[in-house]
Amino acid sequence: MVSEERRKEILDNLSEGVVEYEEDRVVEYATAALEEGLDPFDAIMNGLAAGMEIVGDLYDRQEYFVPEILMCADALYKGLDILKPHLKKDSNGAGKPKGQVVIGTVQGDVHDIGKNLIKMMFDVGGFTVHDLGRDVPLEKFAEEQLRTDSEIVALSAMMTTTMMGMKKVIAMIKEKNPDVAIMLGGAPVTKDVAKLFGADGYAESAGNAVQEAIKMIGQLRKLGEEAAQN
Amino acid sequence: MPEMTPRERVKRFFKREPIDTMPVFSGMGMVTIQAIDKMGIRFAEVHGSPDYLADSASTSSDIYGFDSVVVPYDMCTIPEAMGRGCTVYADAEGILYPTVPSKWDNYESIEIDPDYAAKARMPVVEDAFKKLIADGKYAVGSWVLGPFTLGGQVFELDVLLKGIKKEKEKVEGFMEKMTDVVIDVAKRYQALGTDYITIREMGSGTDLLSPRMWKQLIQPYLRKIFAELESPKILHICGGTDLIVDLMNDCGADALSFDQKNTLAETRKKIGDEVILLGNFDPYGTFCTMDASEVEGVIKGCIDAGVDAVWPGCDLWPEVKKENVEMWVKTVRKYGIRPTPAVGRV
Hints:
Largest sheet of chain B: 7 strands, parallel
Number of domains of chain A: 2
Strand content of chain B: 5-15%
CATH class of chain B: Alpha Beta
CATH architecture of the largest domain in chain A: 3-Layer(aba) Sandwich
Shape of chain A: globular
CATH architecture of chain B: Alpha-Beta Barrel
Number of helices of chain A: 9
Largest interface: A-B, 35 and 34 residues
Oligomer: heterodimer
Strand order of the largest sheet of chain B: 1-2-3-4-5-6-7
């Protein structure tokens, strides 16, 4: 069992490694976490995800922009790749898969930065992610949702010119399964557009996607802490 | 009552000479579904034919009374000529713009064909310009993506963005290559006799890049481009621009164009009355979702904020509501008879 002092040291290094986009540092301390018996869920949520929350603050203060966020995300994934396979199914009751999500950029759109940042949020949160990639034919979203019985479908479009496809996808999915939660993201997507299209949530840009993702990670961290206390 | 021809009006506008009324035009695509339908073709067909491109542009202007025509409509012409391919979605339901299906993902694999300007649809676009210029009815607007945005079309954007920090020299070398292409293509369009050119560095706003990074990574290349081009030359950036308007104004363009995210009244204060400002309404919201009765307020709002011509913030989404576009034209004609900060009236 790792001491509290050592736990803090590992978590701080994971967090700072993400913030400073130091991939080697993240790899070193993620490996140490496993070798020294730190709960991988603790390392993910209070190390990697905590670092990403700081990144969100830096973005809000306009100290970090998308290039920095992408590098922070790379560092986070370096740690996640090491830690995630070792998550215990009953670890605080919080390491259980949260659910499944189908994610992709709609047909006609080849921009996927915002989509990948939202995917990161689901990965960190313990979801099983079915990433369809970019320029995805509209019917593929509905097919994949049915095949995987996913609870969430997340659609991204960076351009107004491709946003219209989202409306069709939502109609296709809701017709077959009205309980599926649909998230929209992308620069042209506004609250009004999301409502008009019948979506359940939205994020308007890559930067906004990261803010939304980080907010959700924060919520998941709180849930994890509550589960640990109970 | 308008006294000048559309072409005359736009040409005088960019010279900042007095005009009769504000021109109704744009530096980006203005094709409408009403023109496509009238021609009896599908949107996917329009991109590959000089006649379809030219006729759909001029038919749109005939229908609505625009002062200019602008081609092409998609951003894949140069990437396609560079061998990155083009997906036109010929079988897709509804309107989809062409996209680039394959991008370079490492700097070592980048190889630009020296003869790219003769490849793929590059001659199609040039032939469309020739037809529109020969017609002479409207001002002919051309555009080229800026080097960073063009780069994002042919190279994986996340690799490029991360490279700004990690592989600075490679990114700079890549930007040099893209800059040379932009200058080359823009000069070709100017040599054909197009009346104005817009450099669309769309993807470089502060949604993505910090002002400091913009100054280091974007501004030097835009300065080089604008130094090489003849007037009239316009710089357009969409997304967050409030923090970089001064930098944009220091690139050598004759006019600046913004989308709806710019706080135009503040920009006008910062920039002063000497520079032509263009913008800045949301074309999709204003023409496709809004009630026609709301359009006048949007357009008048742009004029009151200090634009010299009311440009959409991006290409028109072709499936416009006819009455909304008509209201754009009507409102500009109604309020555009008064002088604007940079352009007087006869």
